[in-house]
Structures are given as C-alpha cells and as structure tokens.
Amino acid sequence: MIIPAIDLIHGQVVRLYQGDYQQATAFTIDPLSQLLSYQAQGAKWLHLVDLDGAKHPDNRQSALLASLVSQLNCQVQVGGGVRCEQDLHTLLECGSDRVVIGSLAVQQPKLVCQWLDTYGSHAICLALDINIIDGKKSLAVAGWQQDAGIALESLMAEFLSHGLSHALVTDISRDGTMTGPNVSLYQELAEHYPSVHWQGSGGVASLEDIEAMRNSGAAGIIVGKALLEERFSVKEAIACWPNA
Questions:
Q1: Which residues contact 149 (CB under 8 A, 6 or more apart)?
Q2: CA 26 to CA 13: how far, in whole Å?
Q3: Fewer CB atoms < 10 Å away: N or C end of the chain?
Q4: Is the pTM of this model over 0.90?
Q5: For this structure, is 7 an active site residue?
Q6: CA distance to 36, 156, 190, 207, per residue, from 203 (Å)
C-alpha cells in the first residue's frame, strides 16, 4: 500500500532532512489541496506529521489537523509529539483513524501497551526510528537527536504480547536522502514478526524503489518528498504497488 505523507510546520508543508529542523525545505502548496489530490489519485491512507506538536505539545496544530481530516474521505494516521494520554485523545478527537506514537513507545513501553489494551491495536501505530550500527538496530528518540540505547528487537516481545499490529520503521540514514529504502531491513522485520503490518519510511526516490518495497513483505510505504518533488505521482506509485 502507498501511504502519501505531508509534514506541517505553522500550517506549511515542509520536509526535514534526517529529522533536522534546521534543514527544512518548505513547499508553497496548500496542504488540503495536496491531500485531496493524493486521495483523488487513489490513496486509501494518508500520513500527517505535526512537527510543531512534535517539538512542543503546546504548539500542536489541532485545529488545522481537525480541519484537514474532516474534509477527507480516506483514512488518516497522524503523529507528532504524543507524550501523554491527553495527546492521544486530542489526535483521535481531531478525527485521526490511527495515532502514530514514537519516542514515548521507546521510553515508556508499559504505558503505550496499556493504550493498546484500551484503544485497540487498530488505533495505534508505533514509529520506531533506528540507526543501524554494526548490524544492531538502535532506537533513537527526541526527534532522532538521542540514542535510546535500546535495540528494536528488545521492544517487540512486550508490544506483541499486547496485540501490536501496526509499526512504522524509519532507517534514519535514508530519510530525506532519496537514496532508496532499506529493503533488506523490511524483509527481515516481516520475516521475524509476520503478525505486524510494517510500514517502511525513508529514501524513496523512484518507482523502482516502490517496486522493490512491494516484494519486501512490508504492508506499506510512506512516501513524502518524492511526491512533493513530483518525481512520480500517487497514481503511478499505486500502479506499481496496488492498494490492498
């Protein structure tokens, strides 16, 4: 499945390079028009990231998110700075079908496991950002600025026991680089954890990358910068990897 994505700062569509706010590229496009275009081309899910909320929950773009989601007919997953249950509530109240939870899942896994029990696995997607060093998948937190000192594999048993079914994994070294996704990473994850619907993220630059990911075992691929730069369209991507 192709999952088009946009990141938002102060209501503007942007892309960061490897999570660095100092290396943001702004696009002079209307976010709603862009999302409606993706929907019209066949997207069944869209991915929104509130980078203001990710930096500080008090700056969450709740009104904008609610307005965008209310005008879409497809399903939407939203992330950005979920630090407590109220943040989760806020994003669900904005109309999100699924909330993406990143650093908190690494730092307080027991709390997020409780939310999986309460809200159901359909409502939560973990965002696991990793640096691969000597083969070890080391998790990063705080907007990729800190190494958590925890391997991805060490988290999985606990989350799986609480019914985890959706996880987005980003190879940080690929994000924003347009060098292609880490296909072997998703092949490994799909093989070891077949009950999880893995979403790939980072590095997609061409339709050839989409084709490679189609056979990786991942359930979907997040595509952001390549679409904004019009390297290919959502319609063309879906032709390579039809939605389930």
A1: 138
A2: 6
A3: C
A4: yes
A5: yes
A6: 24, 24, 19, 12
DSSP letter at 177 equals T
Query: Max alpha carbon distance in the chain (Å)?
Result: 45
> Domain 2-240 sits in which CATH superfamily?
Aldolase class I (3.20.20.70)
Task: Select from 53, 73, 55 the least CA-distant residue to 63.
Answer: 53
Question: Does the annotation mark 52 as catalytic?
Answer: no
Tens of pLDDT, residue by residue over 16-33, are 766 667 777 889 999 999
Question: Which member of 50, 52, 87, 129 is catalytic?
Answer: 129
7, 50, 52, 171: the catalytic one is 7
Residues 6+ positions from 87 with CB-CB distance below 8 Å: 53, 57, 60, 81
Q: Taking the domains of the chain in order of start, what are their residue ranges?
A: 2-240
